[in-house]
Amino acid sequence: MTKQIKKYKFTKETQQYFGRTLHRIVATRNFGNVKAGSLGGWIETEDNLSHEGNCWVYNDARAFENARVFDNALVFDNAWVYGKARVFGNAQVSDNAWVSGRALAFENARVFDNAWVFGDAWVFDNARVYGKARVSDNARVFDNAWVFGDAWVFGKAQVCGNASVSGDASVSGDAWVSGDAQVYDNAWVFDNAWVYENARVSDNARVYGDASVSGGASVSGDAWVYGNAWAFENARVSDNARVYGDASVCGEAQVYDNASVSGYVVVKDQTHLTEGNHSGEVSKENQAAPTEEVVKLRQEVVELKAKLAQISNISKF
């Protein structure tokens, strides 16, 4: 069995950090873009940084407590990796970002600026978390998704595909944001809500319950879409409008001002509703839903959940 050749050692330079002694490291051999003799960042023990692969802690970055950095992962600048966090694969944590708790950053994930990933959150694939964004609890950000600005993704929420969550927006509960969807400004998506395809949720809008917003639909202003309601195709729900119950807004329809739509109402085509309460039953013809879209979405969710289940079998702790 070939004996492992260590790639770094502790220098005599130390610092006290939260009652722990961190050691400056120096490379003892060439690997990746690191040359022998190059000073690195700070670690508490050799368990924090693997001697295998091209992983490295640079600059004034810190890895301490029971955290681990391995494979080809890189930690730069003033970033911290601590708690029982894991940074691996080709992931990078930089600037003033923190990855802590039992959080994972892996594959080609990037966490930078002043972002925090903590709790049991995962950021992976080609996902980006930056600005002052927060990803926490059991949230997952993956594929090519971006979370930035002052956005917060928490609970068991999933942000994936090419979706983005930004501004002061939040996605929480068991909500999913996927496809090319965007949630921004001060919008909230929570409970079991789904926002997907090219949908937009912005301003102070709320989408929650088991509601769905999809296609090219948008929910903006102070509008709420909740219950089992659905806004899809090119529908617009805005201002102080409410769409709830089992109501649907589709086609080029618009619900705005103080209009309220509930029950089994379908608002479609070029219909514009601006005032009043619109509720009740509709014909079977109007109840016709885009079942192909439903099937597609459900299949997408099944595939994503299977992917997450497979990844969860990785034992890195």
Helix/strand-derived category reads mainly beta
Distance between the termini: 25 Å
What number is the mean pLDDT?
91
Radius of gyration: 23 Å
Task: Label the CATH architecture of the domain at 125-310.
Answer: 3 Solenoid
Order the strands across the largest sheet as they lie in space. Answer: 1-2-3-5-8-11-14-17-20-23-26-29-32-35-38-41
What would you call the shape? Answer: elongated
| Number of distinct beta strands | 41
Detail the poorly predicted runs: 281-291
Tally of helical segments: 2
CATH class bucket of the domain at 125-310 = Mainly Beta
Q: Any idea of the CATH topology of the domain at 125-310?
A: UDP N-Acetylglucosamine Acyltransferase, domain 1
Instruction: Please describe the biggest sheet, giving its number of strands, its sense, and whether it closes into a barrel.
Output: 16 strands, mixed
Provide tags for this entry.
317 residues; UDP N-Acetylglucosamine Acyltransferase, domain 1; single chain; 2 helices; 16-stranded mixed β-sheet; 13-stranded parallel β-sheet; 8% helix; mainly beta; elongated
Describe the protein in words.
This protein is mainly beta. It contains 2 helices and 41 strands. The chain has a domain at about 125-310: 3 Solenoid (UDP N-Acetylglucosamine Acyltransferase, domain 1), CATH 2.160.10. Strand 1 and strand 2 form a beta hairpin.
